[in-house]
Amino acid sequence: MLTIAYLANQFPATVEPYVGEEIAELRERGVNIVACSVRNNRARQGANCAAYEPEILCLQPLRLLILLQALGFGARRWKEIVGLLTRVLLRGRESPKRRLKALLHTWLGAYYAVMLRERGIDHIHVHHGYFGSWIGMVAARLLGVGFSLTLHGSDMLLNAAYLDSKLENCRFCITISDYNRRYILKHFPTIDSRKILVSRLGVDVIGHEQIARSVVPQPSGRLTLLAVGRLNPVKDHAFLIRACARMRDCGIEFECAIAGEGSERRRLESLIGEYGLKDRFRLLGHVHRPRMNTLYCHADVVVLTSRSEGLPLVLMEAMAQGRIVLAPAITGIPEIISPGETGFLYRPGDIEDFVAWILFLRELMRREDRNAVSRLDWIRHAAQTQVLQNFNRKKNLIRFGDRFLRLIETPETFAARLERSA
User: Fold this and answer.
1) 264-297 tens-digit pLDDT
2) Range of the domain at 240
């Protein structure tokens, strides 16, 4: 049986359902997956553990005995990682602090290798390009197995530490948008383009026969805006709050809500109070799926204000339910939103342009005649069709599984599995 270690910085995570979905897809194909997490996740008990059985191998809390064993294991096989250590110590422009972190992560890579070495691992795949990918890469080198990774957005656009080494040493790299692939090949021109592959995410979709019956918010005096995403600086919800203050000054009647939790909550609450928006703006915290569907159904416009993204699931979810979406024209977002056809795009960071689009959409909604097909009806239908055809979770997972296993199964891994089973 093919055995793959599947590592994430934190697993399971409610904001990253695709990791568990990929694991479940591979397990359904008879692959033995060792699900791994760098950080301890207390939320595990609240997750759908069916996708994560039989266990989650977690590096934390760190154990002294394994740390000592890792030093010995790394020392015995130092030739396998000397190139990586040379990169950390002698090459590149990283700061001393960054280099020290990379050395510690190299030790953790040896620690991870010790945890895996009796499990007959054929390949290590790491989801996201953060520090967990360095740990997985080091472990793969020490164990003499293949290494691959998945890149999304911020892990290559904002936090790309040692990404050159990770791309050089991976057997293949999966990324979620054409934009990401072009970015990688432009900024790392020595990388073989054949090993940078696009595999799109997806969401649950409704069939063609249901599209025409989708619920559409009825026109009312107050516009309802919804944003979905963790409260993190990269999501730039502060931009949305400032935009809402500008909308109020323009005389727009609205209410806005953000579904999501995170480290920015206190700052955003303070900003809402500072702009006098407490009667119009709500922070809903983490919202479970049944209520999330209700929020989508009652939103006039689903907005996104991130400074950096991969290809956001929130846009796919909103469009699948026939919502009008407004998002910044950044990264891979134009691959899902065709302006004026499946949604609307505004100039990144431009509050006036954002508000102008809201005014435009409010005017279109005022003109809608529910007894006739409106322009927004066509956009809602086109948005659902776009997701149905190109971002269908089930179909995209099948494509992922087919491609992943073709890339993993090499003569070497096949021979190693035969030897173990003999």
Assistant:
1) 999 999 999 999 999 999 999 999 888 898 999 9
2) 208-391
